[in-house]
Specification:
This protein is 36% helix and 20% strand. By secondary structure, it is of the alpha/beta class. The protein has one domain: Ribokinase (UDP-N-acetylmuramoyl-L-alanine:D-glutamate ligase). The strands form 2 sheets. The protein has a 6-stranded mixed beta sheet with strand order 3-2-1-4-5-6. Helix 1 crosses helix 7 and helix 2 packs parallel to helix 3. The protein starts with a strand and ends in a 26-residue tail after the last helix.
């Protein structure tokens, strides 16, 4: 059977993040990608210029259309923007008994622009986190979801991750990309001990869409039948390589995109 994943997220007109990054990731990892768009953004590598809201009913119509015809193996949730959309997504996924849900609680763009209304945070906490197989917050998102200050070390990262577990998520991958040090360390927290997933920190300005790409890569692994630990490890390896190859692309003047197709011949430098 063809592995199929659904991304529920916003559209990035510059192609570096959102559903564009998600679909590129699915394709690069051998998964058939489908999508439900939650918002349209007018943005480029320098920032977000405008956001156009999609009605909750139309978001649900997209989700229903996909599930009515395709056997969805995994779902990635990204930018939701407003509480009505988050609630509609949660109820639609419950109705379809969706499995392997990867929730990326997108709150800010790489440029710092807000991509989630503050009142939507409560919906994430109580309607979507309990449905997720894994939640993938970065350090600022984990702090916002737990009402804490930014985690300064792995011990504080684990404390915040376990607080998110108490909201009903089966697992939490708290990402240390916003931290310091020679390594970029993520912690996967579930029922047992924490799994440390680390890679060399890469110095580059081209990190637009990193979180979208990682969560989509996890969903791709789950869609192909990997267990969660293997899916997270594969995703970390893929994202690290895509960041390392990002400077090969000459796209825009701000935070450029990752090189999602770094392994394909046409995307390698001559």
């Amino acid at each position: 059977m063809t592995p199929i994943a659904l991304t529920i997220a916003g559209s990035d007109s510059s192609g570096g993040a959102g559903i564009q990054a998600d679909l590129k990731t699915f394709a690069a990892l051998g998964v058939y990608g489908t999508c439900a768009i939650t918002a349209l953004t007018a943005q480029n590598t320098n920032g977000v210029e405008a956001i156009y809201k999609i009605s909750p009913d139309f978001i649900v119509a997209q989700i229903d259309a996909v599930f009515a015809d395709l056997a969805v193996d995994a779902v990635k949730i990204g930018m939701l923007f407003r509480p009505e959309s988050a609630t509609a997504v949660a109820r639609a996924l419950a109705r379809h008994d969706a499995r392997n849900i990867v929730l990326d609680p997108v709150m800010f763009a790489s440029s710092g622009a807000s991509l989630l209304m503050p009142e939507a945070i409560e919906v994430l906490r109580y309607e979507l986190i309990p449905r997720a197989l894994v939640v993938t917050p970065n350090l600022p998102e984990a702090a916002a979801l737990t009402g804490a200050t930014l985690a300064r070390n792995e011990e504080e990262m684990e404390i915040q991750a376990r607080e998110l577990l108490s909201l009903g998520a089966r697992s939490v991958l708290i990402k240390g990309g916003h931290g310091d040090g020679a390594e970029s360390v993520d912690l996967l927290i579930g029922e047992g001990e924490a799994v440390r997933v680390a890679a060399k920190r890469i110095e580059t300005n081209n990190t637009h869409g990193t979180g979208c790409t990682l969560s989509s890569a996890i969903a791709a692994g789950l869609a192909k039948g990997l267990d969660l630990v293997a899916a997270v490890q594969q995703a970390k390896t893929y994202v690290t390589a895509a960041i390392a190859a990002a400077d090969q692309l000459k796209v825009g003047h701000g935070h450029g995109p990752l090189n999602h197709f770094y392994a394909q011949e046409q995307w390698r430098p001559s």
